[in-house]
Design a protein that fits this description.
This protein is of the alpha+beta class. The protein has helices spanning 2-5, 9-72, 76-79, 84-96, 112-117, 154-163, 188-192, and strands spanning 100-104, 125-127, 144-150, 168-173, 179-186, 197-201, 206-209, 221-231, 235-241, 246-250, 259-262, 265-275, 284-288, 293-295, 301-302, 310-315, 326-330, 334-335, 347-356, 360-368, 373-378, 381-387, 391-396, 399-408, 415-420, 428-429. A hairpin with a 2-residue loop joins strand 21 (373-378) and strand 22 (381-387). The longest helix is centred in the first third of the chain and has 64 residues, at 9-72. The two termini are 60 Å apart.
Length: 436
Amino acid sequence: IPCIFSIDAAHANRMLGMTPFIAFLIAAPLSALWGLAQAWAGKAGERAYGVVLALVLLAMTAQNYDVYFNGQGKSYSCWSEYSITESSLGKAIGQKGPGYASFVSPRYFNHYSVNFYAYKCLPELKPFKLPDSLVPVWVPADHGLFYGFDAGRTGILEALQYLYPQGKVTSELDPAGRPFLYFFEVPAPVWAACKGVKAQLGTGPVTELNAFPRGIPAGSARMVFSASLLVGVKDKYRLVNQGGGTLRWQAPGVTPSGTAELTVGYLPLRLVWVKPAGLTDFKAELVGDSGIHIPLNADNLTILTPPPGLVARYFDSDDWTGTPLLEQREPLVNYNNGNDFSVRGNSASWEGPLRVVKGGLYRFALAMDPNDAARLVVDGKDVIPLQAYGSGQVELAPGRHSIRLDYRSEGFSSLSLLWTPPGEKNFSVVPAEAFQ
């Protein structure tokens, strides 16, 4: 019976070879006892032995049924023991096919079960990393986007719903009917409409150029292009106009000399181009002091406006000192597993604006490993002092406030910033739209 019902292939194969020997070793003593019963009382002994044996076998069958179908069959740990999450992720990705760029939590990336079921899609499968996986501008316009997360990363799901209202949410349920996996799908036509720029061509209406710079009409005009730019490397950048006409850029931090130090993340960008008659080719890029080139085209620009988020800094030290291992903008703080962090270190901080729509008493909490420590500072005041676990509350007026979260952990384990706005009872992940 364990061989037939086993969910572990290796154990089942071993027991298949043992089954004939087990059957023989059971049958031999039963046969010997049968002979003794017959010798003791003849046919009556055989009948009595048969009744006793039947009762024993019925009791064993009932016990096995109860253990397998009631005990183990209804046990969450037995159900989830052998890669059910990874297998479900891989199956869902495989069903979508190579026409989708798929993203999974880093803890599941390259897992053998995911790779087995999603084998034909492996070139399009990537680990989900903040901030760039939210709006992966490098994905071609003829592909859709597909995301798979475990249930705890609902903050990511909300950020995706905020960015792609036309996206579709589905889930996988455990035996108790609770979601253990969330999927989010952005069809190819929806994704194609998110690429490129919004353009004001002369005095005409604002239009979208999803294949930018293709689609620019002929004729002289002053054109204004608005988009979000993905910056992949922190550096000091300058605008280089490789085409004709006059071109200038407007973005946070741009100096009168036309340079700006840009942090990794999404940057609101505005390009003003005075185009002479007859010129249709637009060609420009941002060039960093270290030699980084960012072409200004649909592969790096999106008409979406991702929340700028908080400036995250990761340190090798345990006291937030020294040169950061990585500095970038992240739209929310929701890491269920150490692999979810953009880089592993010993301390990290998140700092930036906190936008409050409704005034009142806000409760904050930090979900993390009990061996770690963190503190939360709002408007310069300690709402949660540095400790292993904590919660706190603060009265906030509508508008923008400052927030800083410091986290200390050897190698990082897990961290989520939660809040309860006025009028709500349960904690939830602070959403991305609050950090802008």
